[in-house]
Give the backbone structure.
Amino acid sequence: MILSSHVDIKTQSPLAPDSIEALRESWSARPGYMNFGTFGPSTRSVLDAEHRARESMNADFGRFFEEHLEAGYVRERLAGVADFLDAAVDDVVWLSGTSEAMNLVAQRLQLPPGAEILTHNHEHPAGIYPWMYRAQRSDVTLRQLDYLIGAGNAEEIVDFFAKAIGSKTRVLSFSHVNYTDGAVLPVAAICRMARERGVITVVDGAQAPGMLRVSAAELGCDFYATSLHKWTAGIYGSGALYVSPAVQDQLDPLMVETFHGFAEKTRFGQAAAPAGLDFRRDWPRCMHRFSALFIYAGPQLAGTLAAINEWQTLGLQRVEQEVIRLGDRLREGLQAIRGVKLHTPLSMAAGISSLEIAGLAPGQVTRRLRQDIDVLGRVIDHSPIGFTAIRLCTHVFNSDDTVDRVIECIEQIATESSC
């Protein structure tokens, strides 16, 4: 699991005030914004980078188009995304986010008739419905497990999935960080177990980059789908898919604009154009096959690379430590409040804290937080399976003071509810 032990993390001091304060001053959102699991507002420098790229595109579209799509430029720019995920540039696809990435894998992964896809009922809709659609339209089946809410350690989670794998299971699809209870799953151990059983692993990593350091190489998954407009605070509609070399030939394109990725000749029967005339030919391998819409992504990529550069300048390990320190501060305070139930397992917690207050609907609490102290969280509603929660995401943009005000406000709400 790419998550430092809490013992080591808690010995670290917060990020240096000069660096973190500069980041907060450049941030474009309110200090009490705590919904990074849905969308991460960008800093002004990130927005400026996107704006400059759009101005360049408008000023001379022909030149911008040629430079943006030239193979060397694509490889150089995409290398920044690949480095952020600790992956080879040929194994990364630029997409609009986790939803598109999960759909690409679910709809176009080659599977034998009767194959079973295994997942669980705390997955995000974008992690479930693409597989449901595939099962509805082809000869594969989808099985959702009842997730182990309250699991106390990584071994329980690995064992939970291992016991569920059957003779027909071909795919195990799960999240790096649950969007419901905020648990950070032991991805590397799960993937190792699945690989030993011949099962392909598809990881929904929407919540991880920007919250945690992510290493596709260390995780050992076959697919890693992510959004770069959540915790990474890149431009909205930015994301990536890592495709392991072992499974690249088992994935077909979902969308095409030319013959690339599926045919050797053009519609006129001509062989591929020589390098230099065919701008896609020398793109990184997975981009060449799976990123037909990259031609529209120039300004988004420019802004998102600026966001990635901010995190790398601060230091990915230090960002992870600060995210967890703030999350621990919030959870410690919440645990002490009578009437508050914390859903997030402390041994597998990072930036997401999931809770409920006895006697109150989550929406009542999020409205009070917004009205009383201008803090924006989110309601998670899986009520058909008995799970609803208030989700609060603490990031380096939030201060200790903001976290403490949240604790005080929730304590007041809980006290009023119990009277």
Remarks:
- Residues 10 and 137 are 49 Å apart (CA to CA).
- The first strand starts at residue 92 and ends at 95.
- Confidence is low (pLDDT under 50) at residues 1-17.
- The chain is about 40% helix and 15% strand.
